[in-house]
Design brief:
Elements (H helix, E strand, L loop, with lengths): L6 H13 L33 H17 L1 H24 L29 H17 L4 H4 L8 H8 L8 E15 L13 E14 L9 E14 L23 E2 L2 E5 L14 E12 L23 H11 L5 H21 L11 H16 L2 E20 L3 E18 L5 E4 L5 E12 L42 E7 L6
Antiparallel strand pairs: 1-2, 2-3, 3-6, 4-5, 7-8, 8-9, 8-10, 10-11
Helix pairs in contact: 1-2, 2-3
């Protein structure tokens, strides 16, 4: 006859599964822009999940037995479970009108608009696009000094060294995907020249979260993916002035010629003879600080608890006045028209994501967002998976932020949506995560941009804003019918950012 297990082990067998009841509070599946995390885990968004009813009943059974046989342990656990259920119900009731609580002011947001006091041509949209492109280009070129010289006017020597020594040093970079960009520091001098007559400097600190895949596959190596959190400090002289948006990559910041270093120095332009890496003419990366880095592949099958859907909306102070000013400048702008276009983009993006073919939405999203979405679609396909989105619909929305400058209008809308969101194996249809039967609710902040020069009707159909033909756009972002470039909002609003409700700061 075998010995009876010790009492502590018998208690643990019941207590452990009972405690897991708290872990079933809701998990997230996936979706464009929010269903996956760049840290390699699941996403931020979500709401109701499919769950396993049988497992839940078994856990409840064990909890009841625990209360009967070991009440000193079971009753406190039961109290915690009921307390959690009551708190969840309270939070859900708070959010019955979608937008619970008073507006949240942008106390933690960093506002870049004061830069226009020194530089009237400064555009936050243009700067963020520049920072995004430079981050990607510099990482792709970090395998050698020769490659990195292509962006030398915009990356100072100390920052170049930080990239060249980044592990795996000397290895080619196959892909760079920026998951998040956050402004954490802005230094704006009161005057462009200090008391000693020396030019003052403007600095902007940007924190990036990114996945970088590096490794020499051609040499028989295995490319590996590294998740990093790093801070880039951009600086330039306060007397420098912003240039208008341009299609070209990283030309000489002084004369605009294609960059080629002079024989007299790697940071001296061969065309104009100016030393250009010191921020006299444009933003340069002064330093790069690595907060953390570790090797991890994106995980497409893990679940994450929903966070943020019940949070109050982050409203921009003075938004109503800004919105009225936009309508005064363009009477065709209305909340109904913008939301109709947003719903069209929402439907098209979700459909393309489910099919794993993003080409149909090339003209509806910005270049940076398209690259990010394509990264995840490719990751699913490599893993033999497919993220299906069925009956996705926006249930409510709220406009909450508007930034206007010389080049762009950028409008942020919080959307609440729901639908069936699940991942299956492409070959067999086997369910990997999510639910095919239950809707999942979530909210996100979507930012749309449009050229500040654009006026007139807002299209709720997927067609070229220039020639009116059905929307067919090349990978370069141009209409294949008339050749007009579309992905920077030249003719209509395009989706530029998707940000999660639990991390959005305005």
């Amino acid at each position: 006859m075998s010995a009876r297990p010790p009492r502590w082990l018998r208690v643990a067998r019941w207590a452990a599964p009972a405690a897991l009841v708290l872990a079933l509070a809701g998990v997230a599946a996936a979706r464009p822009g929010g269903g996956e995390s760049y840290t390699g885990g699941g996403g931020h968004g979500g709401g109701d999940s499919g769950g396993d009813g049988g497992a839940l009943l078994e856990l409840v059974f064990h909890l009841i037995r625990l209360c009967i046989y070991y009440p000193k342990l079971g009753l406190p656990i039961l109290a915690i479970v009921f307390g959690f259920i009551l708190y969840s119900a309270y939070k859900k009731a708070q959010n019955k009108d979608w937008d619970s609580g008073p507006p949240v002011e942008l106390a933690r947001a960093i506002d870049l608009e004061p830069l226009r006091r020194l530089d009237p041509g400064f555009s936050q949209v243009v700067f963020e696009d520049f920072a995004f492109r430079l981050f990607s280009a510099a990482h792709r070129a970090r395998s050698s000094e020769k490659e990195l010289a292509a962006v030398a006017p915009y990356v100072m020597t100390a920052a170049q060294r930080a990239l060249l020594t980044r592990a795996p040093a000397g290895q080619p970079v196959a892909s760079v995907v920026v998951g998040a960009m956050r402004t954490f520091r802005v230094d704006i001098p009161d005057q462009p020249v200090d008391a000693q007559g020396r030019p003052a400097r403007v600095r902007i600190g940007i924190e990036f979260e990114a996945n970088v895949t590096a490794g020499d596959k051609a040499a028989g190596g295995t490319p590996r993916t590294y998740f990093s959190v790093e801070s880039w400090l951009f600086g330039r002289l306060a007397t420098a002035r912003s240039r208008p948006p341009a299609d070209q990559g990283f030309p000489c910041p002084n004369c605009g010629a294609p960059w080629q270093a002079s024989a007299s120095g790697t940071q001296v332009c061969a065309a104009c003879g100016q030393s250009v890496d010191n921020g006299r003419f444009d933003w340069t990366v002064e330093q790069i600080s690595l907060a953390s880095i570790d090797e991890r592949e994106p995980t497409l099958t893990s679940e994450a608890r929903e966070r943020g859907t019940d949070l109050p909306t982050v409203h921009q102070p003075g938004f109503d006045a800004r919105w009225r000013a936009l309508q005064d400048s363009d009477p065709a702008v209305s909340e109904e028209a913008v939301l109709a276009r947003t719903r069209m983009i929402f439907d098209r993006v979700n459909e393309a994501w489910s099919l794993g073919k993003l080409a149909p939405v090339r003209g509806l999203v910005s270049d940076g967002l398209y690259d990010s979405l394509q990264y995840w679609v490719d990751a699913y396909q490599r893993a033999g998976l497919r993220n299906s989105l069925h009956n996705m619909r926006i249930t409510h929305s709220a406009t909450c932020k508007l930034v206007r400058d010389r080049h762009f209008d950028a409008l942020t809308i919080r959307i609440w949506a729901k639908g069936k969101d699940f991942v299956v194996r492409s070959a067999t249809g086997e369910l990997v995560k999510g639910s095919k039967n239950r809707d999942r609710a979530y909210s996100e902040y979507w930012t749309l941009i449009r050229s500040s020069e654009r006026r007139g009707e807002i299209q709720a159909e997927a067609k070229c804003g220039n020639c009116g033909a059905p929307l067919t756009v090349s990978m370069a972002g141009a209409c294949e019918h008339c050749g007009a470039h579309l992905t920077r909002g030249e003719f209509d609003w395009v989706l530029s950012k998707i940000e999660q409700d639990d991390s959005y700061r305005g």
